[in-house]
Amino acid sequence: MFGLLGPYMAMEESLGKYENRKSIMTPDEYMECWNFFRLVRESKGYDIQSFPSCIEDWVSHALAPIPMDLVCGSRRPLYCDEIARALETINAEAVWHGEAYEFGEHVNVVKSNFHPVTLLTFTVKRVGDGEVETAQAMIFRKRDCIRLSVMEWRFKPK
After folding, report:
1. pLDDT digits over 41-68, tens only?
2. Whole-angstrom Cα distance, residue 114 to residue 63?
3. 16 — alpha (psi -120 to 50), left (phi > 0) or beta?
4. Where do the structural domains in the chain lie, given as residue ranges?
5. What is the pTM of this model?
6. CA dist., res. 157 & res. 139, Å (int)
7. Which residues contact 7 (CB under 8 A, 6 or more apart)?
8. Which residues neighbour 21 within 8 Å (Cβ) at sequence distance 6 or greater?
């Protein structure tokens, strides 16, 4: 995971204290950046939806949030395949607890620009009681662009 988030961790470290940045940032811009890097660190990149405007050109090259109109539009088959693979993995593990899940809806998609990796956030409904949970999965697309591998998955911490 550090390889995927490495550029952001280095940028967060270089952000430093406000005293070092006050010649190029307002206090509000500094806090916007600080909160952004905290979100990246705490969510492992899954919850990125936009970038701070004052550093967008600087940070948008590593991970890119995909607009939901593309996720549900022209690129839908690609993300449906990735979610199907993630759901297959979730259900393979859930069966040991007597549970099964079905897809709910897309929440967020973040694509790596350096690696063939997609970070998916989507809802699942537990079969039986209908309880809805938010799941997150890191999907690796192999070189042939057909085979998908789930590198990790989790239920989003509440």
Report:
1. 888 888 888 888 877 777 777 777 877 7
2. 8
3. left
4. 2-61, 68-155
5. 0.78
6. 19
7. 59, 61, 62, 114
8. 15, 30
